[in-house]
Specification:
single chain; mainly alpha
Length: about 350
């Protein structure tokens, strides 16, 4: 039957593609530190390359790369220092607000519709204390392993910075050398087309998601400041970084903001933050993404959702971050290599 043969032909191709993608993620998982550092270097290159090219009109290339990297690092450190100073300056007031907020949450839980009595709340508190006491050793081990992960993070950041220098300074020459040295002459044109399509898709997606994340962070910061939610600035910064995980990151960050609003300002303000989650989600999905991502590869929301979930299953949070740009690059390459319709 013809339809069965066609279905079988597509099936084995899909299985082969799935195995290749799974193999890529397994290999990257084995060399996770290097893979993450290279990904971070590509992100930094896609963001800073236009700035370096602009400075290169009047300055030498090496100086342009140094100014772009050092300036971006100083800007990031200044932002983190500003956030830390804001948290430290409000620490005493926040501690009092959170203590009062916890009491308001207890009163809220005692009323309808939960109607939890004081005895039940005390039992939950005792269970939490008992759990922390019983699992103190495992929590300490987790903290120590977290220090090890911190050391890996610093190592990866240094490696990403080192690689970014070469990508920014001589990225096209590195690509040309790799293409001419490692590929046969007949395949160079195809790989060159695929490489340029992949880079355009990756750079467009990266710049677009940064614009979307920054817009979300500004909207969240202004709204939380108007609602007088504690830690409005740190929560806005959290929203910026969380927006790099499509579909999942922004709701999680705003969920944290809702908990802070509930503890610091009460149920009504927390409800207003929940409304903010819905409004920003609709704005991001129907306005920002279609408008900002118009130059990048446009993916159907279903493809984005499946990619994020699959990436999270395979490689956790890192997989969720990498999945969408990876699928965007693959789709851009396939589109570039597809024969033009006659």
């Amino acid at each position: 039957m013809p339809w069965l043969r066609v279905a079988a032909a597509y099936a084995w191709r899909l299985i082969l593609v799935g195995l290749v993608v799974y193999g890529v993620f397994v290999v990257l998982g084995r060399f996770q530190l290097i893979a993450v550092a290279l990904f971070a270097a590509l992100v930094a290159t896609s963001v800073l390359h236009p700035l370096a090219d602009l400075l290169n009109r009047v300055l030498p290339r090496s100086l342009c790369v140094a100014l772009a990297l050092i300036g971006s690092l100083l800007l990031l450190l200044a932002l983190l220092a500003f956030v830390g100073d804001a948290v430290a300056g409000e620490s005493s007031r926040l501690a009092n607000e959170l203590r009062g907020g916890i009491r308001r949450i207890e009163l809220w839980l005692e009323g309808p519709p939960f109607r939890l009595g004081r005895g039940r709340l005390s039992a939950l508190h005792n269970q939490l204390v008992s759990y922390l006491s019983a699992h103190r050793a495992s929590l300490l081990d987790s903290a120590l392993s977290g220090l090890g992960r911190l050391a890996e993070l610093v190592t990866g950041a240094v490696l990403a910075l080192f690689v970014s220098v070469f990508f920014l300074h001589s990225g096209p020459r590195l690509w040309g050398w790799t293409r001419d040295r490692l590929l046969p002459r007949g395949a160079r044109a195809v790989w060159d087309t695929a490489g340029h399509a992949a880079w355009r898709a990756f750079a467009g997606y990266t710049r677009g998601i940064i614009i979307v994340a920054a817009t979300n962070a500004v909207l969240v910061g202004v709204a939380l400041a108007v609602l007088r939610v504690p830690l409005a600035l740190p929560l806005a910064v959290l929203e910026f970084f969380a927006a790099f995980v499509p579909l999942l990151g922004s709701p999680v960050a705003l969920g944290v903001a809702t908990v802070v609003a509930l503890a610091g300002r009460g149920p009504l303000t927390a409800l207003a933050v929940l409304v903010l989650i819905v409004v920003i989600g609709q704005l991001e999905g129907h306005v920002l993404h279609p408008l900002v991502m118009s130059w990048a590869v446009r993916l159907h929301p279903l493809v984005v959702a499946v990619s994020v979930i699959a990436g999270a299953i395979v490689a956790g949070v890192i997989g969720a971050i990498v999945a969408v740009p990876f699928v965007s690059v693959v789709w851009a390459v396939l589109s570039a290599l597809r024969p033009a319709p006659r």
